Amino acid sequence: SSGINAEYGGARANKTRSDIFDVEYQRSPIVHYAGVSSIEASHKMAIMDLSWLPDTLEVARLGVPIENKTQTSCQLMTAGVDGNVMFWDIRMQKTSTGPTPGFGSLPGKKEKEAASEKVSSIPSTFAHLDLQWKPINVVPLSKLSGPGLHPGVTISISQELKNVKGKLQTLLKGNPPLIHRSNSSTGRNRPVEVEGVNTKFFAGTEDGYLLYTDWKAEKDPESGKLVSSKPVYAISSHAGPVHCLLRSPFYPTILMSVGGWSLSVWREGESEILQCSRSPVKFTAACWSPTRPGVFFIGREDGNIDVWDLMDRSHEPSMSQNISSSAITSLVPYRVSTKQVLLGVGDDFGTLHILEVPWSLRQPSANEVANMSAYFDRECSRIDYYKEREANRPSAGAGPSEPAIPLPLETDEEEEERLKKSFNSYLNMEKDFLVKLGLKRDDEPVALVH
Prior knowledge:
Elements: E1 3-5, H1 23-26, E2 47-52, E3 57-59, E4 65-67, E5 75-80, E6 84-89, E7 94-95, E8 98-99, H2 109-116, E9 137-140, E10 152-157, H3 168-172, E11 179-180, E12 193-194, E13 200-205, E14 209-214, E15 218-219, E16 226-227, E17 233-236, E18 242-247, E19 254-259, E20 262-267, E21 272-275, E22 283-288, E23 295-300, E24 304-309, E25 319-322, E26 328-337, E27 340-347, E28 352-356, H4 359-362, H5 368-392, H6 412-436
């Protein structure tokens, strides 16, 4: 792929234009925060990923999905190395008696003094969050068996949530309806609960696991209480932290995980349908092609970019190109037009490279979307057949076994003849070995046993 390199770090144009290259323009802008979450209620370790929920739904207590009447995205979820996924709401939380204590409560004298010391240019839109912000729901990334939590690195929610907005009326008219409205006089203003959406999400962990779990609480069969859901499955798929969890822009249920020295392609609700062989160099970044469903790019620790084209081959990258002498840290594609696709590449030196994707990697072939969809379906069918065959195959030692037929006993003469043949075979092998070493001539006889 041909490339255009853009390195940021200094002005290269004519410095006589003081209106542009003034000292003030050369300084990096400082972005001040508008609010900080409560230290006691936040993650106890580093936050590794953040994802905004779509404007179609909201998440209430215990992970219950409800209708978002405002059609404005106001909630986000974060994943931390402490093993928790937290849901946050940027709006002020109110109760029947006013603002909730500890969340959006009226600031005291010290808080007012601290607020007055802030930069005057910061708007007070999120002043109610500063040091008062608490999560509305916490989902632990529990291990499938045994105690402990998986340290979260990255998360990916279902793309079906973005399509709920156009389906709300359909869900209301369903039989039975998937949205339940309260008709009681005391519950007219209660939020609408949506039950027909997928509340499961993927989480990549620091120890190389890929989890598929539910943020909605489930009822414990023993105690009857609502508890956090256990993962549907937890697969150790990478020998290192899972850096990327990327949904395909063409297939909402297909996603790619990259971590350690390998990459995997998954279908939501299924196991991995494609896994590459281990690379000699660590993978550090990845992205899907915005124009071709079978193409994706992988950044490596040695500064190379691997280009995978599943329409060409699925066991190795179609090509590899060196971009930098340091590790690739970020890959972001951008479709300028139907005739131009750019790829932004960031490296560990802080340099930004802008590459132009060639025609062969940006122009899809005829029926490529349908062909790739059929490819994923075939892989899923193959894996289902393999699982079914393994389930039907009797395990070792299971079930009634037929009695073994005893071999006839050898006579003394037969046993002596068998041992003679075995020993003579050994003597011939020994002679051949000594001849190759030059320690014995080929015409020397071998003293065989008769």
